[in-house]
Amino acid sequence: MEDSERKMASLPRGLALLRDPQFNKSTAFTESERETLGLLGLLPEGIDSEEAQIQRVHLQLSQKPNDLEKYIYLSQLQDTDETLFFCVLMSDPVQFLPLVYTPTVGEACLQFGHIMRRPKGLYLSIKRKGRVREILRNWPQRDVRFIVVSSGQRILGLGDLGANGMGIPIGKLALYTACAGVPPQYSLPILIDCGTNNETLLRDPLYLGLRQTRPPIAQLDEFVEEFITAVQEEFPSCCVQFEDWAGTDAIRLLARYRDRICCFNDDIQGTAAVALAGILGALRTTSGKLSDQTFLFLGAGSAAIGISGLLTEEMMLEGLPAEDARARLWLFDINGLLETTRNDLADFHKPYAHRHSPTRDFVAAIESIKPTAIIGVSTVGKAFNQRVIEAIARINRRPIIFACSNPTSHSECSAEEAYRWSEGRAVFASGSPFSPVLLNGKTFVPGQGNNIYIFPAIGLAVYATRARRVTNEMFIAAARAVAERVTPAELDAGLIYPPVSTILDTELHAAARVAEVIFARGLARVPEPKDIAQFVRAQTYKPEYHLLG
Questions:
Q1: In whole angstroms, how far apart are CA 159 and each of 74, 116, 247?
Q2: What is the pTM of this model?
Q3: For the domain 120-261, what is the CATH superfamily, name and number?
Q4: In what order do the strands lie in the sheet with 146-150?
Q5: In angstroms, what CA-CA distances link 279 with 94, 103, 307, 493?
Q6: In this predicted model, what pLDDT tens digit does every residue of 19-64 receive, in sequence order?
Q7: Residues 394-435: pLDDT tens digits?
Q8: Which residues are catalytic?
Q9: Which CATH number, 3.40.50.10380, 3.90.230.10, 3.40.50.970, 3.20.20.80, labels domain 454-538?
């Protein structure tokens, strides 16, 4: 039997085909496909081109009253016609990525149990302990290469959303494909449901998660261990991305598994890499060396620890001893500046607790430490108020101000506030998108330090090379590659990240650099090609219909 005949024989037919998102082409099925696949009469006679289908999607989206309704519409499109869904996203990433991920995904997670139409992914409930491998076998695709898994305990800046957090793994995996061309059939979103401490959700009759409070750490870790073991047995080529876990859980689990399996934590390593990319871009504007900078973080959770760790490694590559590098990194949390007299610090905080008088005043810390950059990872909206911005601007000719927290309502300041209060001198980036700002006759285009610049590139490189592990060196390579893609004209306009409109080219460039590290360190499971960039590009998914009949 010819390969084409085998493929035809394996395809669903009729209504089953129209309900299969991987193969459904909806109104784009050709005349011969309709004849061969039992579709006559199940579709209107008109046959659409992809262009016509995209035009219809744009029209229908334009009639939706708000972004949440657009999110719901696009989610349903992904359920019915995966090719068209990704074709739409990749046709205009500036317009569509904010609708399928930040900032809209935050509202979608808050409302997840209210807006669900069709389940996606797998839900692993702790009440099914001992049966995780059995549940993984319920997933129809046996060659899973990527799992994004969340406990739902720290969703963006919104806190504990329990099973509602499933919107995050779903959205992240959509971005793997839309931004970097990772084939979607190899991805699996998973929510580990251990309950929630969110009383509002527990009282909500439409909440779909386990109705109990979260268990002790030992029980959580035991269940995660079962999950990791089962994944290795069922999907041996899989890379696990931990996403939106509580900060202490995130740090502990990454330390436990990073040298044992192929895994990473996007909130720690991805956030760190995108911050490093932005800082490297900013330094092209300020003309300084990384090892000459001093950083003050507002927030001391997993994101701050991850960024600090990667900045330390990059400074060490510039020749600075580790102790000297860490001395340039200061953290400030709800209890004030991390300094050596505090007795409430976790072990992972202590390398960044330096000798300094205690203070709970962030402005006083700025005036004393004199940082060249402040980085907000606090999830506290408007924490970078006018006093803060004016203080950092008094100390620096070009102050670097990163308001990284998501969603928009939790951003430490807006782009307009950063530029206005610094008299247009700030080098600014944020985690959520902000519109260009007109100030004193000049238009400033704020950079969005979104992890979409990093984790899809890591994913594509891992997929192409079948890497055994994910290392910090790979994240540094990705960060450097992203920073390289910003043009002088874009820097002059205020951008320190490449435009989202060119996201695919940026990801392909970064993925090739990451793949170089993978091959150089002997972490690949495939032979090294002569042209790594061409090899990576050849692995990418293209959202195109293929002739079935």
A1: 25, 20, 11
A2: 0.92
A3: Malic enzyme, N-terminal domain (3.40.50.10380)
A4: 122-125, 187-193, 146-150, 239-242, 263-265
A5: 22, 23, 11, 16
A6: 999 999 999 999 999 999 999 999 999 999 989 999 999 999 999 9
A7: 999 999 999 999 888 899 999 999 999 999 999 999 988 899
A8: 101, 172
A9: 3.40.50.10380
